[in-house]
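Bug: token stream looks shifted between consecutive jobs. Job 1:
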Amino acid sequence: MYQKNIKENNENKIFEYVFNSNHNFVINEVAEKMDMSFPTVKRIITFFLEKNIIIEQDKVGNGVGRKAREYSFNDFFCHSVGVQISEEKIKMILTNAKGIVIKKHSKTLQKGGPSITDSLMEELEFFLSRLSKSIFKSIIGIGISVPGIVNEEGKFIEFNSKNKTDISIIGKIKKKFNIPVLVENESNLSAIAEAFLSENSLLSNFTALTINDYVGISSFTREKNQNNFHFKAGRMHHMIVNPEGRICNCGSRGCWGAYVSNPALVEEFHKVFKKIKKYENIFQNEYLETKEGKKILDEYIKYLAIGIKNLLFFSNPEKLIISGKICHQQKYIKEKLLEEIYNEHIFYRGKETIIFSSFEENSSLIGAAIFPIVDSLF
């Protein structure tokens, strides 16, 4: 479990305030909001100006007398790199300090080709070598999203249930590029994106559900009246929803991921409609309007609802935020899914609990990019 205790010093408190400010601010405002003295805030604001973290704006005020100087957060005072690793692709983005994507790159992994770690090193070198010197120097870190777990005790990173690599790859990347590197589970990084960059940033606890090649969750909690937070990933791909059901790649029967992961849905449609080979091929009327297509999608929604109901009973989150390619297909799925979950329900909360991420399938990638900023500056 990752746990972040926000540094209890004035610099970090003010950094968090200006990071979250969506408007220009003056020193008096910050001093009042932070309950600090004017000289203390002025000293820190001067320091932030020297580090280019904030920008001076015009003075404000009416009439005669001294006018207050306004400041704003500099979205480009640093940059960060996010990497997302799946079975099929490596995706990379460069973002500014607020997670806005500036540059992106992806590479399809070939079966029988170089290992994931070799491909990762090669693509990072390609991506970083094409950045200007000034941007490269401003990179605060590289965040890497993986579908599996990062086991520091066992010293391995799990890309999937059958593909692991030694954790020393983190040190190798750091040494090669002289940039801090953080590797984390994709569901946890989706939670980071939601907690710091979305409209869900004020929630004290929520569950992030990622539906990609694998199905995972992250339970995110922010302590009340404090800035400390923690999150923990759950490998819900292997939660049993049908003991006599489909065989999962882990060897067990009836794993949730064998019913609701992206490859599982593609496989079921491909059995009936041979032209369907990718997730994007599925959601067309020529397939969905057929008797067979409706049956497959209804079964998918049924099992998706079973798993989500288990999660709601287990953790009772303020929100359950779904991310993945499924977010593009809400018009086919959302209404039926909510009806399946909440028909004669006994949950503490209602349908408003289930929402779809505005980051869609990119939540963990954006979370990977913002993670080094959160880890080092908050």
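Job 2, same session, no restart:
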Amino acid sequence: METGVIQKRLKILDDLVHEITKLKASLEDALMDDPNYGKMVEEEEETKKIKKEKKDRIMSTATIKGYQEEIKEKMEELKDTREILSQELVDYYKENGTLEIIDADGNVKRMKFSVKLVS
């Protein structure tokens, strides 16, 4: 496949994202023009502010901080384990040529590959 086709598809994606952004801004402007909606948004912001203050007070306790640290560690472990599994599945596919694998419970799992471009 030629890079021209991919470049064309990337341009289409960029154009769509730009159009969606403009449409969302227009929608938000239309909503804010309604006086009842604007008042409701202001009330919601005040409620959020009060909620945040109360939550911050609670979150500053030692017990909560311990939970937060443990969650952070477990999330990092989860991320690392997923990355390792991903590489192991790629290796498994290369060696066996199959997109299916049986898990520890005997369930057949099907692999799904995903590719993203990063800048």
